[in-house]
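S1.2 Input.
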Amino acid sequence: MVNIGIIGAGRMGKAHADALKEIPEARLFGVYDAAAEPAKAFAAAYGMKKVYAASAELAGDKNLDAVMVCCPTFIHYQVMAELVGSGKAIFCEKPLVRHTEEGDRLLALAAAAKARIMVGYNRRYNPASAKLRELIAAGGLGAVRMAKVGCCVSGYKRQRGDWFADFDLCGGVTLDMMSHHLDLLNWYFGEAERAYGENLRFDKAMSEPMDFVSATVTYKNGVICNIEGAWQRYGQSYDKIEIYGDKATALLSGNQLQVFGYGRSEIFSWDDSPSPYQRQARAFVNLAVSGAAPLADIHDGYNAIRVANAINMSALERRVVVLSGKQEE
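S1.3 Output.
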């Protein structure tokens, strides 16, 4: 049995707890949240034995085999630094940390401790996303030239005063939601070479908080990616990645992948059982039990925030950011 502690009793903590409770050998052991009452309610809902008084307590609890970090982004570095030398398997919800310089320090700490860390890019566990990667690697699309990414979430409800509507704390839609897409692009195309972007950064002149990013990321292999993302309060939602090769075009949306070419049209689809969250939860338990490598480790988490923060830096400084060296947002 794998005893698992969770830091953060909010939306993502619940999402991961729901996935873990479907795994027979996973035991939800204890929880910490800065708000005591939600932590107590969370523990009761999931039959947990313990409510911790501080995040650092989980690192020292010998009853725990693994810890999931599901607290707000701006706290990730502090919590991960507490856990990294504990010997426990660690899951960190995306993004890995708020600032790239924090990622630099965390990579060094993790390497020294030989820590087992995975990052919550659950879209790698979507069969449609994995199939697209296979197609690209096998040359099924031909030489890939360009990609387009669009993720607009309508009905954004966060208000002023919420950390999730504060650019300094969350990094905006670029670092949070769009880091899923940036991670997939890294998975498909390798290392990014340069980035240019414009964004709103929750412009305080707006009556209510909204954020929007428009960016171009060029990879070292020459692929040009146009990226659009938004947390908007009205309008239509959509979430897709289009990849264009010499032989065919692929459209990824949810659990469906469509491939179009000359005289060719194919649709691949999968049901949602087990869901990407459940597949990811299984991978985390496997990491804790046997050390099996996850699809998204600390280096993948770092690479995604590095591109996201390069886009944010570009928008702030109105220049192209070259990712040939370490970037600091």
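S1.4 Remarks. The chain is about 35% helix and 25% strand.
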